[in-house]
Amino acid sequence: MQYALVLQADRLEPGALAEVAHILDAPAPTLDAPGLARFENADPAQRDRVATFCEARNWDAAFVPATTRWEDLGLLVSDMDSTLITIECIDEIAAMQGLKAQVAAITERSMRGEIDFTASLKARVALLEGLEESALDTVYRERLQLTPGAETLLAHCRAHGVKFMLVSGGFTFFTERLKAELGLDYAFANELEVANGRLTGRVTGEIVDARAKRTLLMQVREALGLAAAQVIAMGDGANDLEMLAEAGVGIAFHAKPVVCRQADVAIRHGGLDRVIGLFA
User: Fold this and answer.
1) How many angstroms from the chain centroid is the CA of residue 155?
2) DSSP-derived 3-state class of residue 225
3) pLDDT digits (tens, 9 = 90+) for 153-197
4) CA–CA separation, 117 vs 125, rounded Å?
5) What is d(CA 201, CA 193) in angstroms, rounded to the nearest whole number?
6) Do 238 and 112 meet the contact criterion of CB atoms below 8 Å apart?
7) 37/8 Cα distance (integer angstroms)
8) Which residue, 230, 254, 67, 61, is CA-closest to 162?
9) Which one has a higher pLDDT value, 272 or 115?
10) What are phi and psi of 265, to 5 degrees?
11) Where are the catalytic residues (predicted)?
12) CA–CA distance, 137 with 9 (Å, rounded to integer)
């Protein structure tokens, strides 16, 4: 497979681009915008040297399949918490119980892959027992924000006929509202059990964990009649690794180290609009 190297930053200095060309032993790149450059026929064996050079300048560097462009894609699969949105919803819900620090510590360990996701989810949700359901609405209205570049990316997907699937180890209360508000094509998540207007401390149905995320991606891909190469996926936590591996291109977005190491691409500095430049 042939690869292209895509560089993205607020500004790419010509002299530094020439140094990257020297590392690659390649011609000068195509400059699609002041902050976007693409080297064709780039050697992925130089990935580590390029990454070290670019990271020192806060550039995002990605080796992507050379022939994959937006016109070829059919589905973008995204995690929700700390990917499509800036917060971890469960941590903000816990804040309503005065337990944010305790729950956030478990969340962090889970996202790093240090503890089992399903066990950690059940433990965190149990701490929410007795909280009024209205607290979820407060989190949605007052604390939830889209990640910079999200709306631009969604508009780009619609313009190119690429379906957008939100799949989360979080909760349907948030995914369903985002689906309606943003016009998403698919949304999957865990459902919090509620009784008499209060959280019971349990979730209902099958847990959306790493394996479930991968399975849901495969089911939607098959329903749309797409090949694996026509699917891209993005996420930040260890529970996203299986779905990132199943996609044609898996993108670690401001992700935990274990995810950055295993994903095809890592976006560490820019917003979600940088996903657009990968396949422009």
Assistant:
1) 17
2) coil
3) 999 999 999 999 999 999 999 999 999 999 999 999 999 999 999
4) 12
5) 7
6) yes
7) 7
8) 230
9) 272
10) -135, 145
11) 79 (nucleophile), 81 (proton donor)
12) 36
The residues with which 76 forms a beta bridge, in sequence order, are 164, 232
What amino acid positions are annotated as catalytic residues? Answer: 79, 81
> Could you tell me the domains of the chain?
1-67 (3.30.70.260)
Burial class (CB in 10 A: 0-12, 13-18, 19+), 25: exposed
Tell me the H-state helices in 32-86.
Answer: 47-55
Which single residue is written with the structure tokens 């949605």? Answer: 140
Query: Rounded to whole angstroms, how far apart are CA atoms 265 and 178?
Result: 26
pTM of the model: 0.96
Neighbours of 49 (CB within 10 A): 12
Q: 3-class SS at 8?
A: strand
